[in-house]
From TrEMBL:
It comes from the Bacteria. The keyword Protein biosynthesis does not apply. Belongs to the D-glutamate cyclase family. InterPro entries: D-Glu_cyclase, Putative_hydro-lyase. Coiled coil: none annotated. PANTHER family: D-GLUTAMATE CYCLASE, MITOCHONDRIAL. Keywords: Lyase. This is DUF1445 domain-containing protein.
Amino acid sequence: MFITNIDCEPAGIFNGKMVVSMRPIPYDQIVKSVMVTGSMPKVHGTPIHIGDPSVIGISEISRPDFGDSVKIKEGEVPVFWPCGVTPQAVVMNVKPKIVITHSPGHMLITDTKNIDIKFS
């Protein structure tokens, strides 16, 4: 996951930069990945950026700010989605007296099915 140069919309005292996750997608599957994820705006939704990481402030794609590096193979393109780590990055930026959040790798699990979060 990478901290970008994209400002989040401020909410009260909370402000900061968007964090994105990156997945290398084979060039011929990019449209399909956009269509599939774009149909679920209540979760990650459509990619925020496709291609050159420097456009969104990522100078070294092999050195993520959080998590492990992902190798990009020949014929793959880096595709970036907004990430659920953004709130933690904003909290680290603002440093409130108290905050309650989840632990990395331990996200909220519900009985909501993917079909229920797709829009028509």
